[in-house]
Amino acid sequence: MTVYLKTAAGLDEDQARLEAVRETVTQVIADVRARGDVAVREYSERFDGWSPDNFRLDAEGIEKIVAGVPAQVIEDITAVQARVRRFAQHQKDSLKDFEVETEPGVFLGQRNIPVAAAGAYVPGGKYPLVASAHMTVVTAKVAGVERVTACTPRSGGRSPQRR
């Protein structure tokens, strides 16, 4: 006899759940737009049980976190980032700018121009996905994005870690 540990929700249940999520997210975004950092702090406290003096890590905070990371982990992160950087560079090099005259006086083409800034969400919490940081932050930097901001939820009762 087959025993299912988990089954998929029905379509109606799925739609109701999606609508509830959509409504919550819409309300949170509207509230943050209206009340700014005050709302961010309240949601952080509500969802993560965390309300630090400052959500942005300063250089000292980053140094303290990095000092607590084992040397082997730092080496592994460095190696992975080098691999991601090399591959991202190959991808970038394969995207060529061009311009052609399709008819007399009609010029068409493409130019690859990096955006000025990008945001990267790095999943954290119970199952952090450090690879997300490599794949979003490193590739954006290779693409020429000048300012990349990464954020992650609080993890394991400690402040978020930036790498």
Can you put this structure into words, describing what you see?
The radius of gyration is 22 Å and the shape is extended. With 163 residues, the chain is of the alpha+beta class. The protein has 2 domains: 1-51, no CATH class; 57-163, 3-Layer(aba) Sandwich (Rossmann fold). The strands form 2 sheets. A two-stranded antiparallel ribbon has the order 1-2. It has 5 helices and 4 strands; from the N terminus they run ααααβββαβ. Helix content is 52%, strand content 13%. Helix 1 (11-35) crosses helix 2 (37-48).
Number of domains: 2
Number of strands: 4
Mean pLDDT: 89
Biggest β-sheet strands, sense, barrel: 2 strands, antiparallel
The CATH architecture of the largest domain can be given as 3-Layer(aba) Sandwich
- Secondary-structure element string: HHHHEEEHE
| Approximate helicity band | 40-55%
Low-confidence stretches: 159-163
CATH topology of the largest domain: Rossmann fold
The count of helical stretches stands at 5
| Rg (CA only) | 22 Å
Report how far apart the termini are.
48 Å
Percentage beta strand = 5-15%
Biggest sheet, strands in spatial order?
1-2
Determine the structural class based on helices, strands and strand pairing.
Answer: alpha+beta
Q: What is the overall shape? A: extended
* CATH class bucket of the largest domain: Alpha Beta
Report the CATH superfamily of the largest domain: Nitrogenase molybdenum iron protein domain
